[in-house]
Specification:
InterPro entries: DM9_repeat (IPR006616). Keywords: Signal. Residues 1-23 form the signal peptide. With 189 residues, the protein is mostly beta strands. The chain has one domain. It has helices spanning 4-18, 178-181; strands at 32-35, 47-50, 56-64, 67-74, 80-83, 88-91, 94-97, 103-111, 121-124, 130-138, 141-148, 153-156, 164-166, 168-176. The strands form two sheets. Strands 1, 2, 3, 4, 5, 6 and 7 form a seven-stranded antiparallel beta sheet that branches. The protein is globular. The N and C termini lie far apart (60 Å). The structure holds 2-acetamido-2-deoxy-beta-D-glucopyranose (NAG). The site of 2-acetamido-2-deoxy-beta-D-glucopyranose has 6 residues, from loops.
């Protein structure tokens, strides 16, 4: 385990060396597109939830305080929120997860930090744990949340609403379309 002082040291050293504050490492398995509200919203962004205001939320990721974390992005305004295991926050720059002809994404029911096959990881936390994308229904919406398997719950904190730790939730998993990968296999000439 890292001590709190070690974590702070890590963040400070990186801030000085790179001008950014993180020790988290991005996962590069999936297609993530750097974006902000000035950019066009990608066609194949992955839908994740609905906030209490009725806006669709798409799956994003951000870097915050030595961790890579899942984010909730509104297409209309670019309003982006996320949470750690404790705090709720907002971001102005983010990456959006996008699907393509061969790779699509699904939400599957899960619980208690079970490691689902092909679960989408956004990257690692300051504790060097993989961080996964979950979602759950609470507080008048469906919220994309942060899943650390060791914490055995989907952690959701949105704006001023209370912190939620939900043990039955959905996990985002990757699905590879084999037919698209081998388009000529089934062709009859
Ligand atoms: C689709 O996305 C996957 C995952 O990022 C990538 O490996 C693959 O090359 C992409 N396929 C196409 C057709 O762009």
């Amino acid at each position: 385990m890292y001590s709190p002082t070690k974590l702070i040291a890590c963040a400070l050293i990186f801030a000085q060396l790179l001008g950014s504050i993180h020790c988290g490492v991005y996962d590069n398995t999936d297609n993530w597109v750097l974006s902000d509200k000035t950019a066009n919203f990608p066609e194949n962004a992955v839908l994740g939830g609905i906030d209490p205001y009725g806006y669709n939320n798409y799956v994003g990721r951000i870097v915050y305080s030595s961790s890579i974390l899942p984010a909730r992005v509104r297409a209309e305004t670019g309003y982006t929120t996320f949470n750690t295991e404790a705090v709720a926050n907002q971001a102005t720059s983010y990456e959006l997860l996008v699907a393509n002809e061969t790779v699509s994404y699904q939400w599957v029911r899960s619980y208690d930090g079970f490691r689902e096959k092909n679960a989408v990881s956004v990257g690692t936390s300051a504790l060097n744990e993989r961080v996964y994308v979950c979602r759950a229904r609470t507080d008048g919406g469906i919220f994309i949340g942060t899943l650390y398997l060791a914490q055995k719950a989907c952690i959701i904190r949105y704006e001023n609403l209370p912190l939620r730790e939900i043990t039955k939730y959905e996990v985002l998993v990757r699905k590879v379309n084999v037919a698209a990968l081998a388009p000529f296999d089934n062709k009859i000439n």
